[in-house]
Description:
- The chain has 339 residues and is mainly β.
- It has a single domain (4-338), classed as Beta-galactosidase, Chain A, domain 5.
- It contains four helices and 24 strands.
- The strands form five sheets. The protein has a nine-stranded antiparallel sheet, with no helix packed on it. Strands 5-11-22-21-18-13-14 form a seven-stranded antiparallel sheet, with no helix packed on it.
- The radius of gyration is 19 Å and the shape is globular.
Amino acid sequence: MGSEFILRGNHGSLHLQAAGGMLGPAQFNLPNLGQISPLTCPEWNKRDDTKDMLPLIRNLCGDFVCAPYGAPEASESLPEHWRKGADQGLPDDTWFHGYSVNSPWEIAVDPKDASRATLTNLPPDQHPLSRLERHVSLLPDVAGYKVELRITARRDVRFPLSLHPCFYLPEEPGAVRLEIPSAKRGWTYPVALIPENAPIAVDARFDNLNAVPRANGGMIDLSQLPPSERCEALVQIPSSAGEIRLVYEQAGYAVKFSYDADLLPSLVIWISNQGRDEAPFDGSFRTLGIEAVAGAFDLGPAVSNSPKNPIARDGVATTVSLSAGQELITTSTITLSAL
Length: 339
């Protein structure tokens, strides 16, 4: 089995990684702008100091799927109202963000069409999911690609699910504008991820992405990223529109991520702006994760499966449910356009 394949189409190319079934790097050509690389793909998997790290972190690249999404157990540091009703989660999957993103996938490129491929992951026999497939195709008429995700259940199961693309985050503060139709309210993460680089208030509610509470008072505008300070943060926003647009105004292009909001009713926005000093991040890593989720942040199955978590109590689904033998099918697209 090869470790990497490349799809090629009319408007660019997309790498496919056997490690974790990840997509990226990607290069697309836009008129008068040249080649654009919209996904974040660090190459630290080539470093000796990453060999023993969690495979998800070691191989982190671009666009992947998390099934189940989040931590395998509820953290003891969570406030009580986030732990209320939490159970043992999925005992047969103890990986952060799930077995599939931490294990190899088989890749089969269409022998008649170099712009299409299927990635397949077969979890072990005790796992509640029996098969995951990502059918990936470069779009013929515009710069971008489509992914059809298929998940088959081995037995009845309820779990949080996430589509997890990581987009390029420039160095200049405010260089990316987030446009999220229908988004109004949201939550900040219930604990500080990196306390020394945590400008956003912990466990707070907000009504507008333009005015998110700061840790030390005042507000921060998270519709214009990155912030001017070092930052490691997650916020969650319900959105029924099924799309988010990232506008790189000075660079002259936009990226649109479209997905099924009926299945995945929230967006978790991960802002990593030089916020982590530990290896392999080394205080220099930047990315903008736009995660379409049915989940309560990345708190995992134990919290997300509870109807008492604050997001579920607000009427927003935090899990998907499958019966034994049932197949879930959902489609997403990422497209680029000149402004």
